[in-house]
């Protein structure tokens, strides 16, 4: 893992969006793994801005989202499909048929999970997977106890996750579904590159455990230590409990990959 600390959530979003934009320019047929949540809203806002300013061509790009709630009515404003359409897909020139999310309304969730895994495989795998981190340490919706070898499957959400995500359901925790379909930890680890984005003081403790604590399936994000190419981009607020800050600053100051961001 590499970790860089930027000043604030805006700088984190700008750097993340720039990495995605550069990938799309270099490989217009790339496969992107996408995530949802408030952190990603800023990332997609920046990406939409770059796309408009630089004329990014997403027409051959394909995307796979990490997860989707189970049991929401089709077209629900709370679904991750609606979130993605609103924040990104309707604002760039990607054909909607190239954008994939697991179908949380499928009658047969086991078959749907297998179909999703197969679609990722047939696309040639994911080039860059964005992940956020939940307050339970989840990536995707891989709650504590998720095996590191897990694949796309249905899962029960932790009460803390439902509380955290209630803000997106007008504050009504009872409206947050109990279950979701999510890529597994093992699915995520097969992406060629993973970019973890975390901001805000509320996640400072879980980020420190995820990055510097022992590897454990009680905190799914610690599985990222088994991946060859994970970059964590975080802001000052979320970085406050990290113990090796001077080293992370050295990474940013010296790694050639970050030269364009040092100017
Ligand atoms: N399933 C998503 C996660 O993939 C995301 O990382 C998390 C963080 O959300 P936020 O950015 O709103 O803190 O939200 C949801 O739980």
From TrEMBL:
Keyword Ribosomal protein: no
Domain Glucosamine/galactosamine-6-phosphate isomerase positions: 11-224
Transmembrane stretches, start-end: none
Record key words, sorted: Hydrolase
GO-annotated cellular components: cytoplasm
GO molecular function: glucosamine-6-phosphate deaminase activity; identical protein binding
EC number: 3.5.99.6
UniProt GO BP: carbohydrate metabolic process; glucosamine catabolic process; N-acetylglucosamine catabolic process; N-acetylneuraminate catabolic process
InterPro entries in the cross-refs: Glc/Gal-6P_isomerase (IPR006148), Glucosamine6P_isomerase (IPR004547), NagB/RpiA_transferase-like (IPR037171)
Domain of life, per lineage: Bacteria
NCBIfam families according to UniProt: nagB
Record's protein name: Glucosamine-6-phosphate deaminase
Species classification: Bacteria, Pseudomonadati, Pseudomonadota, Alphaproteobacteria, Acetobacterales
């Amino acid at each position: 893992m590499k970790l860089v600390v930027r000043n604030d959530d805006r700088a984190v979003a700008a750097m993340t969006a720039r990495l995605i934009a550069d990938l799309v320019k270099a490989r217009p047929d790339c496969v992107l793994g996408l995530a949802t949540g408030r952190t990603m809203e800023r990332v997609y806002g920046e990406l939409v801005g770059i796309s408009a300013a630089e004329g990014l061509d997403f027409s051959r790009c394909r995307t796979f989202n990490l997860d989707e709630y189970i049991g929401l009515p089709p077209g629900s404003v709370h679904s991750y499909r609606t979130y993605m359409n609103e924040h990104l897909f309707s604002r760039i020139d990607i054909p909607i048929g190239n954008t994939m999310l697991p179908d949380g309304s499928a009658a047969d969730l086991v078959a749907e999970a297998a179909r999703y895994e197969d679609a990722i495989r047939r696309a040639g795998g994911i080039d860059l997977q964005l992940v956020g981190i939940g307050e339970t340490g989840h990536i995707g919706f891989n709650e504590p106890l998720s095996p590191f070898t897990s694949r796309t499957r249905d899962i029960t959400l932790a009460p803390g996750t439902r509380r955290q995500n209630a803000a997106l359901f007008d504050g009504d925790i009872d409206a947050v579904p109990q279950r979701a379909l999510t890529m597994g930890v093992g699915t995520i680890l097969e992406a060629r590159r993973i970019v973890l984005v975390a901001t805000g003081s509320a996640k400072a403790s879980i980020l420190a455990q995820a990055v510097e604590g022992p590897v454990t399936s009680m905190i799914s994000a610690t599985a990222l230590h088994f991946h060859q190419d994970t970059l964590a981009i975080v802001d000052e607020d979320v970085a406050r409990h990290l113990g090796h800050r001077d080293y992370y600053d050295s990474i940013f100051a010296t790694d050639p990959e970050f030269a364009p961001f040092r100017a």
